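go over both lines:
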Amino acid sequence: MEAAAAVMSVRPEPTVPPERRISAESLVEVVREVTAELHPRGLGGHEVALDSSLERDLGLDSLGRVEVLLRLERVFGLSLSEQVLATAESPRDLLRAAQAAGVRVTTPGPEQGRIELERASGVPERAATLSEVLDWHAERHPERVHIHLYEEGGQTREITYAELRAGAGAVARGLAEHGLLPGETVGLMHPTGFDYFLALYGTLLAGGVPVPLYPPARPGQLEDHLRRQTGILANARSRFLVTVDQAKPLLRLVAPHAPELRSLVTVGDLSAAGPSLPPVPRAAGDVVLLQYTSGSTGQPKGVVVTHANLLANLRAGGAAIQADSSDVFVSWLPLYHDMGLIGACFASLYFAIPLVLMSPLAFLTRPERWLQAIHRHRGTLTASPNFGYELCLRRVRDEHLEGLDLSSLRVAFNGAEPVSPETIAAFPRRFAAWGFRPEAMYPVYGLAESTVALAFPPLGRAPLVDAVRRDELASAGRAVPADAGDASALHFVSCGGPIPGHEIRIVDAAGSELGERREGRLQFRGPSATSGYFRNPEATRRLFHGDWLDSGDRAYVAAGEVYLTGRAKDLVIRAGRNIYPHELEEAVGDLPGVRKGCVAVFGSPDPVSGTERLVVVAESRAGETAEREEIARRITALSVDLVGAPPEDVVVAPPHTVLKTSSGKIRRAACRELYESGRIGAAERAPWVQLVRVAASTLWPSVRRVLQAGLELAYGWLAWLVAGAATALLWAGSACLPGVERRWRFVARVLRLVARLTATPLRVDGLDNLPRDQPFVLAANHSSYLDGMVLTALLPLPLAWVVKRELRESWTTSLPLRRLGVLFVERFDAEQGAEDARRLTAELRRGRSLGFFPEGTFVRSPGLLPFRMGAFVAAAQAGVPLVPVVVRGTRSKLRAGQWRPRRGGVAVRVLPPIAADGDGWKDAVALRERARAEILRLVGEPDAAR
């Protein structure tokens, strides 16, 4: 299980006195006891030994391991790290961890950890980016505690806004010094902890785009996990992956599958670079995050979320629940999922809400910790998918709740997966004695394509459940209210209405809006809506229907409230009736012998008739054939009673067969693919076998990468050899040939030959826009040393290029540039600059056309720099037209600070000429703004002047 451990940060446990250490025999006895309870029919010949595999030999899944940890805690009074849940592979691993643990379990007193804070002074209403939000809080209340982070052993670490901003700024500097450019993506594969926040906000401050990834949870799914995550890195074109030290060897195996990935770094590597970096300017329309949806198969879909989308969603959601800095948000949600990252983390940042955070493993190991943290910190807000509330119902015992008070909770979000009517009724009923109020249960609806939140119910109202007639909904799509006592009724939970500023509608297959209580596809629009999927135009095209976005969910509206009925792609249509997989999955999960939450229901085409078959895959620990057959019979009978039809196939599969997403949702499409390929129930490969397979799969990508690097290096040397020969030829030609026009034509021919020899396609559009009968000023963007050579090669008329005076001082450039009629200007001496401007105006009046790069210089990072005034003053004063020109491709071909040219083409577009309205300073400024706006519109780079 070292593979899974590689992605988790494991801290050394304190040394325990010898008299406290437990023996191998006593630990094996605890494991044997739990194993016997789980497998009363035996282990098929396997004996419990120190080196038995917990999973393969003893059949202990994650819940079985949790039970072992709880028994060890009760028997020996030890507190074991939650990481043991993910990393232990054998009883010997448990023994090492137990012998190293030295802290007895303690429950903090009722007042310990209570947060006493004054209200913050407002919210950053004018902030346009998330980085500005962080800076706003760090400037106004730097010592205010933002995060109360639960660490190993149950201790909490308090993180202030100042500490968070300083640490993130240091990481930002490290990323910049490692070569991160604004707009580039950075993968984050890191467990919950302070370093995660530093990497996240450091990436944003450096102008990068975070791509949250999740660490592998189980060694049995290591291969599948790594392939999916590297697929995301490849799709996102991430150059960096920030992770933990232990993960580096593992991730290097799969790095060749993400060809643009250059660096695997830790927060420590980046923070060592030096002091904080000032935030790189970003705009509201820039991408803040790529949130990859947890789709089951196919090309990864990265939802593009801009700063504007994110802040609009936070503000609308906060208004709906009346959030402010007097709230306290308690969360165990993973930070790689939108509900935890945006709903808990970013929302708490924006509203200055103290965020009490524990790791998902801490919750899964002992779910009572979540409830105890709510009590201890007087939490007012919390959130969980439905399964989290279910886990508390099943696993939290009354003795865990002594002295507990949950009355401070006003909103307990329930979302990110289908909300169970049974759960939202059972949870308030079970925990009412400890102060939980029914109106605190808050079923919501959201999706990554709407940033996160889309529909919230009214505050202060208990959940609303609608009972509808099954036959009417299944056959006609009408949600007709069921009669009281209708045992066959379908029950759906209201998610309320759209959050402020957003709209929802229900449409039929033709896209026509449906009326009240008619089921169809849910579409939405609003300021939180994404612009599409990153580098996936086909999926983006399917997403949009005019200005409405397709959620992929089916729903109906009643009395203005939205009721979700299921995913459109998961709906099974059988004999003209709609079958809702989630309902059947939940019912089958309650059958004896079936693992609850581990059932997949899907449709699969019959290979003979082509009609859709209903298939049920249910996990069970049953080992005997007769026992499995009995479970299958019960499932068939239940299906007939519930949906009116038996499944064509029932598969009783071993544990861990049903695939799930990072947020715990059933991956029905992936399960269908597994079923149709005949791999249901196949033995799970050992982690080392999976690693060998992954390493083997990287062989060709590694070879291809080495070959590509060699070809790029060879290309660079070839380009320089060609450039050296061309330089000598240009020197000789410009020195010997008579007349500027002849020299111009000679230089252009040589440069076009250089382009052909270096396989550099040159394309020019809009040459007809160049005035032929009068002088003009040409103004082009500047991103590389190649710009002047490209324009010289492509433009048909000789120009008097205007260049910096420093080039006249160099012997390598002085002679050819002077012989080509280049004009040198002073950039720093104001008096000389004014004289140069008068000289340029005079040249224009004498009939010479001038060429300018008004940015004056270029830098490595993409972006159009501010324009200097020289070209525009000269054009206005001389009364000649100005021709904007856009050059694309030269920056990537030879970037600033880069010695080796790269392969690629260059495109030039000549735009229609524009003229100043007069010859004054304001006319020249207006001319500059018009020209710059035209170039910015087509250059394909951000505005670096903002």
